[in-house]
Amino acid sequence: MNNSVGNTARLLGAGLRALLVLTLVCGVLYPLAVTGIAQALFNDKANGSEIKDKSGQVVGSSLIGQTYNLPKQNPDDPEEAAKPDLKWFQPRPSNGLGSNSVNTQYSLILSGATNRAGDNEDLIKWVTDAKAAVVADNSTATYKVKPEDVPADAVTSSGSGLDPHISPEYAKLQVNRVAEQNNLDVKQVEKLVADHTSGRVLGFMGEPRVNVLELNVALKALAR
């Protein structure tokens, strides 16, 4: 009986010591080490790749796309379509993901692909309507957009629906409209796009791209 109690006590003591050691190593030391390394070597990425405006205020993350729409006429109407604010560079579309039907008190960001085939009628209508809108929105008195000049990323969403980038072609297509809306010279806006165009990763991976949020932050500073 005494041996049984002693063995149980030793097992409980060993288990408690193991719990304390593993809690210290895995729950305290390891997280502190990883956090310290991340803050020292990858400070920007570890803190969410935040983008700040000229005043130092955080306006978003370079990893997540944003919409630039005008305020709704009736904020309580879920059926009212959002209209783009044409003074800003516009991102890729992100429609087709549905809406929050669980708790309509909150507006949730839904991320994901539409998963519709190329011959799906809904997808064809979205692309057709989006192309017509791009042509209409970006044509000015001195610059007319041709339907064949509209790039694919202007009328289709990414796999997540939250892509923060657009192609240089789509950014250039918006230059004349943005310049007109902000009373800027077209050459100024063209340079802005060129300065915010990133090349392929390591020179061969991916495609050239423009971060819309970074571009609009620079546009805001230029327009003032």
Structural commentary:
The protein is mainly alpha-helical. The protein folds into 2 domains: 2-43; 50-223, no CATH class. The protein contains 7 helices and 5 strands. The chain has helices at residues 2-41, 43-46, 121-138, 168-173, 175-181, 186-195, 212-223, and strands at 50-52, 58-61, 165-166, 197-198, 209-211. The strands form 2 sheets. Strands 3-5-4 form a 3-stranded antiparallel beta sheet. Strand 1 (50-52) and strand 2 form a beta hairpin. Helix 5 crosses helix 6. 17% of the residues are buried. Mean pLDDT is 86; it is low at 96-100. Residues 67-97 are annotated as: Disordered. It holds the Pfam family KdpC. GO terms for molecular function: ATP binding; P-type potassium transmembrane transporter activity. The system is composed of three essential subunits: KdpA, KdpB and KdpC. It is found in: Cell membrane.
